[in-house]
Specification:
This protein is of the alpha/beta class and about 190 residues long. Helix content is about 40%, strand content about 20%. The chain has six helices and nine strands, in the order ββαββαβαβαβαββα. The strands form three sheets. Strands 7-6-5-8-9 form a five-stranded mixed sheet, with helices on one face. The chain has a two-stranded antiparallel sheet with strand order 1-2. Helix 3 runs parallel beside helix 6.
Length: about 190
C-alpha cells in the first residue's frame, strides 16, 4: 500500500492520505457535480405548464430569411397553431404531415401556423423544404420553449385571437388525437 505523508502549513500534525481517501474524494466531487446539474436543469424547466385559459407568451423570432415575426403583432386578429419541433424528433415527424394536411384544409381562414425549431443539431430549413411543409419556420426558439414550459417534442399549442391558450398538447397524445384536438380548438 502506497502512503503519502502530507504536512499542512497550519498544523504540526501529519496527515496520511491513502488511495481510499482519493477514491472517496473523487466520488464526492462526482456527486456534487451531479447535484448541481440536477438543480440547474430543474430550474430550467421550473414552472407549471401552460394550460387552457393561460395567456400565451409573446415572442419575436427570425425566419430563415431574417424576417422578424411576433406572435402578438403578426397574428393580432388571428388564431395561431404553435409547434415546437426538431428534425431528430420521431413524434414530430409523425405529427407534421397531419398538421400540414390540416393547414391545407383550413387554407383561407384567419389561422397562422408557426413551426418553432428547438434543440436542433441539423438543418431545419432543408428538412422543411424536403418535406414540403409551408408552416412559418422560426429558428432558435429554445428560450421561447422554456417560456412555454415545453419539456419534450413536439410541443403543440393553439391560441385564440386574444392570445389565450385554447389547446396545449399533453405528453403521449397521438398525432391523430392531437389533430382532432387542434381542429376542435380552432372551431371554437
Amino acid at each position: 500500500m502506497k502512503v503519502l505523508l502530507l504536512e499542512p502549513a497550519y498544523s504540526s500534525t501529519k496527515l496520511i492520505a491513502t488511495p481510499h481517501m482519493h477514491a472517496t474524494s473523487t466520488l464526492l466531487k462526482a456527486i456534487a457535480t451531479s447535484l448541481c446539474w440536477l438543480l440547474l436543469t430543474t430550474q430550467a424547466f421550473a414552472g407549471k405548464p401552460l394550460v387552457e385559459g393561460d395567456d400565451a407568451p409573446d415572442w419575436i423570432l427570425n425566419t430563415p430569411t431574417q424576417e422578424s415575426l411576433s406572435l402578438y403583432r403578426d397574428s393580432a386578429d388571428s388564431k395561431a397553431v404553435i409547434l415546437f419541433w426538431a428534425t431528430w424528433c420521431p413524434y414530430c415527424e409523425a405529427l407534421m404531415p397531419e398538421l400540414q394536411a390540416l393547414k391545407n384544409e383550413l387554407d383561407g381562414q384567419s389561422i397562422d401556423f408557426y413551426a418553432l425549431n428547438i434543440w436542433e443539431d441539423a438543418d431545419p430549413i432543408a428538412y422543411m423544404q424536403r418535406k414540403g411543409y409551408t408552416f412559418k419556420l422560426l429558428l432558435d426558439a429554445d428560450k421561447i420553449a422554456k417560456r412555454y414550459h415545453v419539456r419534450g417534442t413536439p410541443g403543440l399549442f393553439v391560441v385564440d385571437e386574444n392570445k389565450k391558450v385554447i389547446y396545449a398538447r399533453k405528453k403521449g397524445t397521438s398525432p391523430q388525437e392531437s389533430i382532432e384536438f387542434v381542429r376542435t380548438a380552432l372551431s371554437k
